[in-house]
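Figure 2 data, in text form.
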Amino acid sequence: MLIGVPKEIKESEFRVGLVPEAIAELTRRQHRVLVETQAGAGAGLSDEAYRAAGADIAATAGEVFERAKLIVKVKEPLGHERTMLRRGQVLFTYLHLAPDRPLTQDLLASGVTAIAYETVTDNSDALPLLVPMSEIAGRMAPQIGAHWLERPHGTRGVLIAGAAGVLPARILILGGGTVGTNAALIAAGLGADVVILGRSPESLRRIENRFGARVRTGITSPETVDTLCRESDLVIAGALVPGATAPRLITEQTVRRMQPGSVIIDVSIDQGGCAETSRPTSHLQPTYRVHDVIHYCVPNMPGAVPRTSTFALNAATRPFVISLADKGWQAALREDRNLRNGLNIHDGRLTCRAVAKALTLPYTSTDHILAG
């Protein structure tokens, strides 16, 4: 199979779909890989490293999209990239379709078979291709929040760890999953006063067992979220509903009542965001202010640490890429329920129930697709 790796064109996105080690394995299996020139440069991976691994280098993205049967990316295809997709081609990448009707409609119109990293599961129904980026984004969130809490940004001027005789910053984390747990790891390590709210008592019990008294926990409710947001210097929102839009846990009324100069880091923005006042930003212009509260809403947070992120993502995606290449998408999905859960779109039909519900579009089951 010919596998294509285009250069990411989303603003300030420096990750790449495949690293040379993955390509070497694919070429040993008699597959061909076409990598757009400079696709890995942002992660410190040269064209020469890709050639040494057995890849061919394409001068343009157009050549990659035109020739490849399987396209492996990191982020969703943007406008021009969508026009190059075609029926019979397989796209394997993060999609986050639920909050993005134009992307969904363009993929449906293209006829492409689109498999989304974020809905691939494992045998415990966790999300193994979302976990590494959620882990990194969660660990980044407290350090980003610490930066934006400094007074030169017009915020509260609070040091996360506090000082002798001065209380540390109060950090509220929404969501007890991978983002929340990793945010708590860094926030508690910095010496913050940390509270995590989640919906699952089992997850909160696991967090308490891990962190002990360093992190307090509570069950998510509108009243608790409102109260703790108003008391916090930094709110990190990382709640997730797999495949669907993120739960709107922070109302605009709550934001209006938060302390002036406080900060919201909305890690869930790629699924629509947890705050009613959240909207996507970028690494070049990462923040904006609503009701005197700084909002940081960058959908591709791990893109700021592309080398770490690229290798972490590739370690998780490699077995699935190999399966798709070795077997073809139909056989790979028939044999692997977990990869089958990743199918979101095929030949103009929407196959992810959560996305169909979010966008009020017709749904076709993957089993029906594979039986056809």
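Caption note: The chain has a mean pLDDT of 97.
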